[in-house]
Amino acid sequence: MCSEMRVEVIDKEIVTPSSPTPHHLTTSNLSVFDQFLPDMYVPLLLFYPNNSTTNHKGNKVDHHYSLITERSKLLKTSLSETLSRFYLFAGRIFSHNNILSICCNDHGVAFIQTHVNCPISKVLEKPHAGMLNQLLPNDIESTFESTGYLLLVQANFFKCGGIAIGVSISHKIADGFTLGTFIRSWAAMGLGTDVVALPTAEFGAAASVYPPQDLSIKSLQTSGKYVYEDCVKRRFVFDASNILCLKSKAASAIVPNPTRVEVVSALIWKCAMDVSRSNLGVTRPAMLFLAANMRKVLGHPTLMGNLLGYVSTKTQESEATLQSLVAILREGIEKFKVNYGNGVSGDDICQHFKEHEDLMGKNDINNYTCSSWCRFGFYEANFGWGKPSWVTMPGMPFKNVIILIDAKDGEGVEALLSFKEDDMAIIETNKELLAYASLNPIAI
């Protein structure tokens, strides 16, 4: 049970960039994309079992305390060095004339070190949100005003010597792509290899290309239709072989080669529609919004911050099939590429998010949101004690949300679902879903 695991805070400190941010970079505007993201935190957990008695230099480490001391120091030192490149993350948000900006004053990030009274296997053998939340530095629902930091890190040292690194970053400054770039760069810095970090100028480029808008003039909100609710979270794992079977079943003349994200999203969408039909006795129109990384579409593959939009798809089919839903998703994705492939203006982006908010607010349609964190390279994060054995997050505190993240082999997919309790009770017993996915299997 969750109550058996105790996480004791040993130390709290502020980690600042190893070198001061140049004066000409001390203020950075948020882009119009950043403006529309909610003031909440994006969480991530990376698990590293203690598979070796040697340190990152290959020297034998006999004492548990020495191991913790060395690894904690390495994490903080490499974090400080990495923040010199990702200087925005150590700043503070401020507002001027209805425009949000980052004061890059090297305020620093929070670094919390904890001791966990059980082996890491206790979490990995039967993970659940209650346990995972304890390993994060703050609640997802926190705001910048309540924490005072844009980035918070919690290094959890287990009794066995394993480590779980919990990271929370403000969604106002980073999406999954940006977080993945930061994590890989931090790990590379710790390992002492060539750092993959982007040139400093890339961090202000998004606001130059997509400058912030005075949304008060446009009568637009910047928080979206996000309402925190009591939801049940479940983790479904699709292994590589089942992904292949699912692709084969979903393939059609319209979409002969569906992607793993398309087939998993479509299957869960279908299951959610089954729940609605079971509850109401009729099939309501259903929309699935795919949160899309727009960097490739817009031709800016390395911009930091937030560069995401929503692919909107809808069906009114009473007997939707996996093939038909995949075809609807593919059509929506291709339409999205056409609409935004030739560039967008600030007004275009504002209109895009306004339309999304309007659709999310409709009461006669069932809305579901899916965000894919696949291919963001989280499993490449080797600080010197190997790559993570498991990367996850506890799930989001919103109903009808699906997060997809790579399985360790890079071919499978973990689906993290958040639904109302009654709806989840039906989903987690859906025979078609369980034919392709395992419900919360061991993560070792």
How would you describe this protein?
- A hairpin with a 2-residue loop joins strand 4 (92-96) and strand 5 (99-103).
- The longest helix has 21 residues, at 260-280.
- The chain has 14 helices and 16 strands.
- The protein has a seven-stranded mixed sheet, with helices on both faces. The protein has a six-stranded mixed sheet with strand order 1-6-7-8-3-13, with helices on one face.
- The protein is α+β, with helices and mostly antiparallel strands and 444 residues long.
- Residues 54-62 have low confidence and may be disordered.
- The protein is 32% helix and 23% strand.
- Helix 2 (64-83) crosses helix 6 and helix 9 packs across helix 11.
- It has helices at residues 32-35, 64-83, 121-125, 129-134, 144-147, 176-191, 202-209, 240-250, 260-280, 295-298, 322-340, 346-360, 421-427, 431-434; strands spanning 7-15, 27-29, 41-48, 92-96, 99-103, 109-116, 151-158, 163-170, 232-238, 286-293, 308-315, 366-372, 390-392, 401-406, 413-419, 438-439.
